[in-house]
Amino acid sequence: MIPFNPEAEALNNILQEHSPAIYNLLSEKGKRIFFPKKGLVRQGQDAKGKDINATIGMAIEDDSTPMRLQSIAQCMDLAPEEAFPYAPSFGIPELRQRWQQLIRDKNPSMNGAISLPVVTCGLTHGLSVVGFLFLDPGDRLILPSMYWGNYRLVFEHAYDVQPTLFNTFKNGRFDTESLRSTLLEKKGKKVLLLNFPHNPTGYTPTVQEAETITDIVHESVKAGESIVVVHDDAYFGLVYEDGIYRESLFSKLAHLHENVLAIKIDGATKEDYAWGFRVGFVTYASKGIDESVCQALESKTAGRIRGNISNAPRISQSYILKAICSPGYNDEKRKKYELLKSRFDRVKKVLKENEQRYGAYFKPLPFNSGYFMCLGLAEGLDAEAIRQTLLNRYSTGIIALEGVLRIAFSSAAEKDIPHLFENIYNVCREMKPS
């Protein structure tokens, strides 16, 4: 086996000295990865500002600005330096600092140190980076029984990790008892992935459920075991009902216990309605975490990014940074939130008004947030057959899962929502006459 690089060893020594629990949670690949301080990137940084800089693999105009095609440059309102050069593998420093502050602003109950977010090329890339750093083949990745299908590609097929599932809902609530029994049934390293607002169901825990989940995680490490809790916060902030926990569960778990490593994966994708920009972030926290541990984790994360995609696009990062710094940013986001909430409210109203009529064919699963809601189908109804009929005869698209239809009300105009559910009802009635 190839010996550890001295720079990887240096990062590992920091983690072993200051947080042995976090070190032991790293995968074998995670222990070997590092960001090269003496490599090409560092040598390029050393030459920055010199009269002659023949280091970086970029083309430069005679006036020292990035070489560019006017046909591209004329399409944007950014300075050439904000769009065309490579970004650091860690991400643009000011954007990282701003996003860290936004995490604190959005989660006011959270106290204590957190790492500087490292920029990834979207949240899916962030999940993959975390899989690289913390999952070995055969490790336990704990997920709810209903989960985003792309997790299979990200974790199961890429890192040879078979998910361990707990039941998602019981009696119209999040099944915390199933989570507890699944988390406690076996000893050893565990990685728990929580995704709220949840895809596909559009559910976020109540305030009480959030407390219970926190207690369960705490209980799981009392015996001295360690756990990684990954928070896939893709839809963070889109909570539409009272009594629902409005912060990220990251805020509760970030400093819960020395044996809990909390990882927040979030980004501009849904929070800032910039899906194609592919700007995500990975942020770490644990009780007693210090700057040296934060920097070691950031360096390992940036090392994986450097060795995988090199860096996330600068142009996307620059635009998101400009948006965050804009005086109208919060007001714009509030208006988009209100638009999505109006669609959510219309869905609730339509389902309530037609509860008896629809009930023979489908019933909504619990939902209170996010982009989606799900319909559980009556016995005998085939989700894929319904989807195909909706496409071919009703010009209506939905997602078919096993025994469930997923409805993205986020992409349906409010005026079309009653028609959408009537189309589903009509197809179900045709396929399963009363």
For this entry, give a set of tags.
434 residues, alpha/beta, Aspartate Aminotransferase, domain 2, Aspartate Aminotransferase, domain 1, seven-stranded mixed β-sheet, 13 strands
CATH homologous superfamily classification of the largest domain: Type I PLP-dependent aspartate aminotransferase-like (Major domain)
The third-level CATH topology of the largest domain is: Aspartate Aminotransferase, domain 2
Strand content: 5-15%
How many H/I helices? 19
Distance between the termini: 66 Å
Number of E-state strands: 13
Structural class: alpha/beta
Low-pLDDT sequence parts:
none
Rg, nearest Å: 24 Å
CATH class of the largest domain: Alpha Beta
Domain module tally: 2
* Overall morphology: globular
The averaged pLDDT comes out at 95
Describe the 3D structure.
The protein is an alpha/beta fold. The chain has 2 domains: 6-35 and 89-325, Type I PLP-dependent aspartate aminotransferase-like (Major domain) (Aspartate Aminotransferase, domain 2), CATH 3.40.640; 330-431, Aspartate Aminotransferase, domain 1 (Alpha-Beta Complex). The protein contains 19 helices and 13 strands. The protein has helices at 6-18, 20-25, 28-32, 40-46, 70-73, 80-83, 93-106, 123-134, 150-159, 176-184, 207-221, 250-253, 268-271, 291-306, 314-325, 329-353, 355-358, 383-394, 417-431; strands spanning 118-120, 140-144, 163-166, 169-170, 173-174, 190-194, 227-232, 260-267, 280-285, 362-364, 372-377, 399-401, 404-408. A 7-stranded mixed sheet has the order 1-9-8-7-6-2-3, sandwiched between helices. Helix 18 crosses helix 19. The mean pLDDT is 95.
